[in-house]
Amino acid sequence: MIPPSPQRRSLPGFWQRALRHPSFAVGGLLSALLVLAALLSLVWSPYPPAEIDIPAKLQAPSAQHWLGTDSLGRDIASQLLVGAQNSIVVGLVAVGIGLGLGGVLGCLAAARRGWVEELVMRASDFTFAFPALLSAIMLGAIYGPGLLTGILAIGIFNIPVFARITRGAANAVWSREYVLASRAAGFGPLRITLDHVLPNIASVLIVQATISFATAILAEAALSYLGLGTQPPQPSWGRMLNEAQTLLFQAPMLAVYPGVAIALSVLGLNLMGDGLRDLLDPKLARRR
Known about the structure:
Blueprint: H1 14-20, H2 22-43, H3 76-112, H4 114-128, H5 132-143, H6 147-174, H7 177-184, H8 189-225, H9 237-244, H10 253-280, H11 282-287
Helix pairs in contact: 2-3, 2-10, 3-4, 3-6, 3-8, 4-6, 5-6, 6-8, 7-8, 8-9, 8-10, 9-10
């Protein structure tokens, strides 16, 4: 009889421990606020985010404009709410690309070993030579700057990250007794990967996906700041920072609002990732 994979046993009281974990609780709250802001902006915002009202430009916070207006009279609160959509879309798609392709390549390298593993790892090394910014510049030169260009650039950069992490975690699982028993029973690499390897490395991939999500939000803001990401009139936190840099002494809060939004989003996802790492690690989980 083939012994079961350890990770198939559910951790008792996960949510009770999660709520007592300070990093996960704070990070989950900040991440939930980001998601709620994006969901709210789908159905409602104080004003159309791209609506220009020159007579109302650079207004201070008031009952009409909760966070004031920018140099074109656009409502800051509306831009922040709708800008959260871009951050989440870029994070989900870019991390999905990295997790999907990188996870498959990592599992393939661990299952086949030999020249297949060497080829996957050397391809990962080659891809690391093209960071997201450089990839965005090259893609922008070919297809033009835009949201899709930013997503592809960040997603391509995430592929070798997930490939390396998946391969390392999968190699550890392939040496375990229950995998050896499955191989002795005649199961092939695909069956073993689906039945044993993936369930046991899922926690590692979830933690990495959370951290990569935060990195993707930061990268999207950087690309939009440089004019390689989201293009007008679609709101973007990074482009809001770019537009505010010429008014730092006249209206410094124009840079503070999107900067704080980016910082809190990245901080929340990083804290949640750290909390998940502690909660999903069986050794650390038994101590709590």
